Structure formats: structure tokens, C-alpha cells
Amino acid sequence: xxxxxxxxxxxxxxxxxxxxxxxxxxxxxxxxxxxxxxxxxxxxxxxxxxxxxxxxxxxxxxxxxxxxxxxxxxxxxxxxxxxxxxxxxxxxxxxxxxxxxxxxxxxxxxxxxxxxxxxxxxxxxxxxxxxxxxxxxxxxxxxxxxxxxxxxxxxxxxxxxxxx
Length: 164
Known about the structure:
Elements: H1 3-11, H2 26-39, H3 43-54, H4 59-67, H5 69-78, H6 84-102, H7 111-124, H8 140-153
Helix pairs in contact: 3-7, 3-8, 4-6, 4-7, 6-7, 6-8, 7-8
């Protein structure tokens, strides 16, 4: 039988589809573990996320997030009833960031301002560790990180008129 005939007859053979069970990529497993530990309240992971996210924050980022205040207010309108504490805490952070912007905060930013800026940026990010569009839990990671930033810095975030 010639090569053309073999190819031709092979085209007509029924092909059985085989479902291959693939394990998720390693980075997908790591991301799942990270989400689980965050939602479980693992302080080490929460602190690591906050520190990693705030390490590159500069004064220009603080000023940029202040310009996004309207977007934050819009997001509040979409936040479900269960997140009143998140609304209060992010407003507290925003007031502090606005006070710092008014006195023209410069680099290097104090950690409370860098982490506060990161928390506000994270809140605006729709597709973060738990996408905000997931009903009921989409803002859980945002709430945990914002609450942790407030807990880490307490009264420093309520101050205004600092010499930043």
C-alpha cells in the first residue's frame, strides 16, 4: 500500500478522544495555597503580601492614588452590605494619604504611607488574588489586607498634618 493510500485511509478511522487528567501547573497550586492561607488569616502570608506590594511604592504612587479617589468611591457603591468595616478603613487610609499629599510627601515614604497606598491600589484592582467579581467572597482578600494595614499602623493612619 502506498503512503498516500495509508494517509487517506487513516483520515477515515474513528478517533477516540482520551481525556488526559493534567495536574495544574505548579504556579496555579502555589496561588491556590496563597489564597487559602490569606483567607485563613495567616499573618505571615498577609504581612508578606503587604511588604512585597508596598516595597516599590513611591510618593508619585501616593499622589496617583489620590487622583483615583472617585474610583474608590464608585467601588464603595458596588460593595455589598457585609463590607462596612472595609469602607470605613479605606476611607481612613485615604484621609491619611490625602493629608500626606497636601504637605507634599516625599520619598522615601514612611511605611504607613507606602502600605496605605498599596492597600488602596489593591482595592481598585479587580483581578487580584480573589477576583472582585466572585460573588460573596471577591472582596475578602481586599478586606483582609486593608484591615491588616490599619492594624499594623493604627493611629499613624489617623494622623494628619504630619511632616511627611
